[in-house]
Amino acid sequence: MELKLFNFIENVTEYLEDSRNELNAASRDIRLYFEKVLEDYNEGSLNVNSRVKSTSSLKEKILRNGYYKKYTSPQQLISNLSDLIGIRIECRFIEDEKEICELLKKHFHEQDEDGYFYNSTNKNIKLKLAGEQPQRQKNGFEVFRIDGCCQYEGKKINFELQIKSLVDIFWGEIEHKVIYKNNNYTLGDEFIKNIMTSIKKNLLMIDSQLQAVDNQINKLNSINPANRKRQIQKLLSKIIYDIYSLKMENNIGLIVDFKESSDTIMKYIFRSNNAEELGDYSGTLVKTLNRLNDVSRNHVSFTSEITFEKDIYFQDEFSNMISSTILKSINCDFNWNLFFRVLFEIELGNNAEDFENFVGFFKNLLEENINFVKLRSKFNSEEAGYIANLLMKEVAYCFTQIDSITLIYDRSIEVIKHVVNNTIDLIIRNIDSYQQWEKEHEVYLEMTGSKLLSKLT
């Protein structure tokens, strides 16, 4: 015959499941209320999560705490369960936990006869704030844990509110999943305690370091918002380098420096996602981090050839010259192969489309860095466009002669910009008509090509 306590547990879990829709609705209302309370403080650095206790967790708690001996009915047990609903306010740093707790005390400033505190804007949600915070747990560590209750459709529903920083969330996962859930007592309790204390101290140090980094970034951002964009790109570039340098070492036993390639890839990714505004940058950051998390688990062969789904062809001569040069070298030159191998894996889509998009990106990058508009002060739009195309063709010719990955780096683009802009200034200064340009253009093109080759090689 089955023990009576298991019949009781089964009845409790059935009652919980019957009430789950109602509890989920109450949980949502509580979460939305705390999001509203913290709206002004948030600034994008807070997250409020809610959950209704699971059946398995409830069973475990009933057995562990002997609730089957304390309560006579499922309704009585559920109504007295302090963490039937869990609300967690997630913040960045431990220091933020204290500030949020103080903010809640200021908001929930009116007290009822049962010792709960509430705000007159919503008398249905209350907190017990009289106790000391943070609370010291049995393991000796502290946590901001506050009991609360909610009146929902005439019923009182208990919830537990926790305020946790990033490192405390991680610590909670370690403690719960590694220690609390582990029934293999092969290590002495004192040893476990010492190890866990050491881990906690290291996490506190990490929290301090993260806050120092955040403070420094905020200082830079307050001076110039454009710094944040550069910081985001540098951060992701560093992550790309770290992921693929490790893969490279595991695959071929050595690491080739491709930091500048990583920088160019990140610049391309942000441009291809049209991330011009800071908000777009944040969205692209999250999207790219998720993609990098996926590719970090993929196997990469650095010795195989890159293939394309179709032939590559462009309408303009500049792009055709650039693409032909790269395609000839992509499976012969390790640096070109590495660059596009990484780019193709990060960017979803087929290789041919990604390659075409990158060549277009490189062309636009040059055109926006060269002041071709100046030509219109001396020539009409059609004539200025023709001269600009000849200068770009000269750049492409030098690209075919040098054939180096360095040509797509920022430092090379600055050189190209400087040389071509100097040529444009000379043209405006010395050429009086388009007819004169047609007679003398070879001199200016040869001079431009000569300077580019000397400075870029």
Automatic annotation (TrEMBL):
<dbReference type="Pfam" id="PF04607">
    <property type="entry name" value="RelA_SpoT"/>
</dbReference>
<comment type="pathway">
    <text>Purine metabolism; ppGpp biosynthesis; ppGpp from GTP: step 1/2.</text>
</comment>
<dbReference type="InterPro" id="IPR043519">
    <property type="entry name" value="NT_sf"/>
</dbReference>
<feature type="domain" description="RelA/SpoT">
    <location>
        <begin position="50"/>
        <end position="186"/>
    </location>
</feature>
<feature type="coiled-coil region">
    <location>
        <begin position="9"/>
        <end position="36"/>
    </location>
</feature>
<keyword id="KW-0175">Coiled coil</keyword>
<dbReference type="InterPro" id="IPR007685">
    <property type="entry name" value="RelA_SpoT"/>
</dbReference>
<protein>
    <recommendedName>
        <fullName>RelA/SpoT domain-containing protein</fullName>
    </recommendedName>
</protein>
